[in-house]
């Protein structure tokens, strides 16, 4: 606790220069130098960091141990060093000005516990507070006293697994260490250690580990004792029964509370089973049921934790280094933590982008699938935005960083993804409601059978079906699958419960903050020497983009519809271009003007002038012109204009087709006539203008209790209206994700994300229905076994739990398949194709 308080409350202070060493004592103790200074640790941590940097300027220094409570610094020297020769040099270093290198700036100098030291040692060119031992070229053992705590060790494992270049992690809590296997071609040990030192906040204050299954452990002990007493030592049966009573005390208390409020539920059902235990005096069956009831939640939690690591591994990736460019064209490798806003960063083929920024130079093919769900790489040209965590498939570019570290969109996405249990799910509440509802007929049936048969067997059988375990784990694990499915389509469900509530929505409210003026592209002009060449250029461009999620494709298909279709053979996407062979065997390249200008294709004077002018212009990617070249000569240039029709209208038409009963309305602060004019193309059911924030809230609540608000969730002016809705959907996109507080975020900023979210929710609902059918079939089979096959309570309970087991296996297979798909996608993303011998096709 003291460590937490120090880490939380130590404010950053201004550097105070060299520590006051006017009255220190520096003495030799064997192969160590011991420095005592009463004022050193009373100063800021910066003074201690200065001292560490100064001391390590001496190459003979191997490690430094800091003892705060003793006001002592122990300087360990290398075995061959002469302490008498090093002593005066260290003294001079301590009296000199500020050190040139600041290697101790990111070190955690708070002690692991009161009375213990902090040991700083060398690790290559870095300083670290970890105990480091290199086991081989690809394996490293990293230890620290803090890792003896289970929560710190868990978070340390999460951090190590997220580092790009670390391939495997093996934790050892007893040894307070971890053994990592890393790719030396991707990351160096010093880079790993520097990243760990700069990430102590995550280790100290990150997500909590799954709770230990204490009740499962207690139930296991109870089962073992009951088995021993019932089958080997009958004299111990009274003690075993008493142990079961103590274990079941919480259920008894809950049942009494429920009955006092006129409720009968699961607690009463379990308490009735306890009554039969007291009657029979045989506790083994109750012990088995207790273990099973505690096993399913523990298995579900463990599976969810393991699946989250696999499903979201790419989204939680941390980069250790970056290439920082300077104004003179030089490039230097630096730690990502050293990047700042406005720094120029250079990336090239095979790199992950380390920060958010805007391209200033170059041309690259970027894969954004892990962030936006967009299948296929996209071209990035000067003036366009790039995001941390995305992958450079081809080309190279330099961008100016706008957000770094934990302020990037990728970091915001990683923080929004779940760690551990998914809480407040409607499906979980429904599982509890259904289980408690089923408890009443089960109790009535048990009582009736006891009266009719005057024996406890069938009455106990009626109480054994498990109505709760299967639905609980199904709700949790199926919801996690739905989150993963939605994310793969570019939809972030920040609040998982909102995904389930979408299917109940009956009204969609379009807010002012939407971009009503956004238009789809259309072909504005084809510049070509002849009409036939222009038609050929349009047909070839359509073939190049066919099957790609490119907003220009639909415009090309409409424009080229009257012309003869062309087929693309051996199509390949380059940075800024698509190349293929046409039906005649000619090489075709459909490229951005910047690519065409660089490659210097053959062209007429008019076409060459048009390409040169377009290469300098900066446009939205949906309006980017296309240059079509065949056999190295430009056939035509296609320009686009953003006036092909409202994007919102097209998306709303798709939503109406999928949900004909839904209503769409617009709430606006604009005057009524202007609001109606803006929404004319959308064919909305109603438009409400002249509304301030309070009036918007009243309108949303009065129109429907199940309304979905659609707007920009990052706009603070919309916060109250957004939160008043049943579900909020933001089209703010990836760029504004850090400030977005909507329940669901469309990472590509497109309304089509609503259809993808509903699809994931419907798949989740279908899984829940299938799981309920399995559970009820198993419970009915257990009851039938009691009547027809003479099942006792134990066999009936085991048969019922077969249903929970089948549900668990189904969810295990589903999450396993999703995790494998994510791993395959990540591997395919990093598997770069071989570069062709020439960029242009002959």
TrEMBL record:
One of its GO terms (molecular function) is cadmium ion transmembrane transporter activity. It comes from the Bacteria. Coiled coil: none annotated. Residues 1-23 are annotated as: Disordered. GO terms for cellular component: membrane. Belongs to the cation transport ATPase (P-type) (TC 3.A.3) family. Type IB subfamily. This is ATPase. It comes from Rhodoblastus acidophilus. The lineage of its organism: Bacteria, Pseudomonadati, Pseudomonadota, Alphaproteobacteria, Hyphomicrobiales.
